[in-house]
Amino acid sequence: xxxxxxxxxxxxxxxxxxxxxxxxxxxxxxxxxxxxxxxxxxxxxxxxxxxxxxxxxxxxxxxxxxxxxxxxxxxxxxxxxxxxxxxxxxxxxxxxxxxxxxxxxxxxxxxxxxxxxxxxxxxxxxxxxxxxxxxxxxxxxxxxxxxxxxxxxxxxxxxxxxxxxxxxxxxxxxxxxxxxxxxxxxxxxxxxxxxxxxxxxxxxxxxxxxxxxxxxxxxxxxxxxxxxxxxxxxxxxxxxxxxxxxxxxxxxxxxxxxxxxxxxxxxxxxxxxxxxxxxxxxxxxxxxxxxxxxxxxxxxxxxxxxxxxxxxxxxxxxxxxxxxxxxxxxxxxxxxxxxxxxxxxxxxxxxxxxxxxxxxxxxxxxxxxxxxxxxxxxxxxxx
Length: 383
Fold this sequence. Notes:
By secondary structure, this protein is of the alpha/beta class. Helix content is about 40%, strand content about 10%. Helix 4 (about 95-100) links the parallel strand 2 (about 85-90) and strand 3.
């Protein structure tokens, strides 16, 4: 008598608001007949963000997505043509493509072996060996950076620092320092709006310039030197729609509960999997004096590449989805060859050879957790 195979355990499951939760907001939108172009829901969402960051609303703006937010922030910095922007070699491709699409050159740097991020110390070392015009660290897997350290780096070097905080909403704050942050509101993030992004900056005029560039670069300020309706810069269409703002507002209204649930799940899983692996798994270390408030991924570092391959194979046999974050590394991307400058990134390379993403999503069933735990035990010699 055959037994049917268990259902696949997905890697991620978006935690999006239900249609019923969205309906009142969609009715408000429809009543105003305002669906884009900085409508009332977008402005309400931005006002809510301003309160949370304790900043004037003029110091932040929504965008269509974080990738365009990064591009427009880099453009708004008025860097010289061909400017070199230091980024980690261990990151999602959008960090590099944003630099290229803004007309600049990515410089691929190493990351810290423990927090898996580009740190001020690594950036200082790179600046001693070559000319750098700006730094674009990444809040890897949502782990926040210490903004006081990066603020000090900016003051010492005069180089602008922009944090790619795509996965770090609710974890990455300015922490009383000056700085620029770009968040993603993608469906897989801790504050999902389906698509969307948020730019937060204490740099004078930066958020306003990004907002203008997101509306094609058209001037809407009667007091400006350029006539209203004329181009003040060469921008693009990167505005957040009212539809996405509606989703974002619902998600924001219950963010704290969601964050607590994600924290609890991460704690339970890391504890159980560490025990199953006899302590052979390594987790991302906290990068500063702030903690990861709303994790969206679960990534474990295995002892070596062979053990990772074994765990991948056993997971596939047990119908458990996995992913090699971020593979291939930027240093191995053929499209970037000749378009990026590569520095020594041996720690990033080692990380790329041993890291594996495991399933992580709200409402994960106990049976699913146990199946993952059993496979990890087998792969790491726990039983």
